Amino acid sequence: MTATPIAFVASKTEEAQAALAELRKRYAEVPVEQAQVIVALGGDGFMLRTLHRHLALDKPVFGMKLGTVGFLMNQFHADGLAERIARAQPTALKPLVMEAVSESGTTTTALAFNEVSLLRQTKQAAHIRVSINGTVKIEELMCDGVLVCTSAGSTAYNLSGHGPILPLGADVLAMTPISPFRPRRWRGAILRAGTQVNFEILDPYKRPVSATADSNEIRDVVEVMIRESREKTVTLLFDPEHNLEDRILNEQFAS
Q1: Most exposed of 39, 80, 94, 157 (fewest Cβ within 10 Å)?
Q2: What contacts 14, CB < 8 A, 6 or more positions away?
Q3: Whether residue 208 has a cis bond before it, omega within 30° of 0
Q4: What's the pTM?
């Protein structure tokens, strides 16, 4: 059996770089453009950067945890890598598309595999108008911020904000407020994946707000549109005994 052409990428941490050197001694490597699988060594933050950096190549990514958080990663083992990749289960993820308009009138488009979050930039609470598919649902949300997340991202920042954990493949998104003050009883919403969300920043000069798609931050936004991408997908590979769907399910029963 011919081995799958692999490209290795690793975070800059000492642990990840040591693992990279070990794997390169044990396995043949090709340039990332020629690989059939990218093996990413690091934590979830590095996995997200890998997905963004190599999205255009349309290569599946097999991650191994060598960082602080590894929800999107498999466990690190140097042995049997080719066999693990051959039996790995694919999980397709659709990112969110963010279109953010800044005070200068510039529109920035970015993708988010976890979440798009809006956050106040100063001590002043943000005042945000919330619209769903062109209809205003909340005239004025007073808060520290608000986010929209994917199923894969629902166990990250969204969970810290007491948002719901979303089953993988449920075709829904979560919208979760961050420290909301008004409306007092609003704790967020679960939306169909095809929903378009619009946030309009009220009084952006006195109450400036930033928008962040994963790690791509845009300052001083006045309007943000969010929807699920219809064009882009990424594929993550997981060991059958450690697949992402089971991990998301188990998170709902974690103490």
Answers
A1: 80
A2: none
A3: no
A4: 0.89
Which token pair is 33? 């453009």
Average pLDDT, rounded, for the chain:
93
Hey, what CATH class is 6-93+233-251 in? alpha beta
Return all residues near 163 (Cβ < 8 A) that are at least 6 apart.
Answer: 147, 149, 154, 174, 176, 188
Does the active-site annotation cover 214?
no
Amino acid at 143: C
**CA 212 – CA 218 distance, rounded (Å):** 6
Task: Please tell me the CATH code under which domain 96-228 is placed.
Answer: 2.60.200.30
Q: Which residues pair with 228 in a beta bridge?
A: 96
Q: What percent of the chain has pLDDT over 70?
A: 99
Helix, strand, or coil here: 246? helix
CB 66 within 8 A of CB 11: yes
Catalytic residue, chosen from 44, 144, 214, 246, is 44
- Residue showing tokens 């709902």: 252
| Percent composition of the chain: helix, strand, coil (DSSP 3-state, to 5) | 20, 40, 40
| Side chain identity, residue 133 | N
pLDDT in tens, 53-110: 999 999 999 999 998 777 899 999 999 999 999 999 999 999 999 999 999 999 999 9
The structural domains of the chain, with segments of one domain joined by +, span 6-93+233-251, 96-228
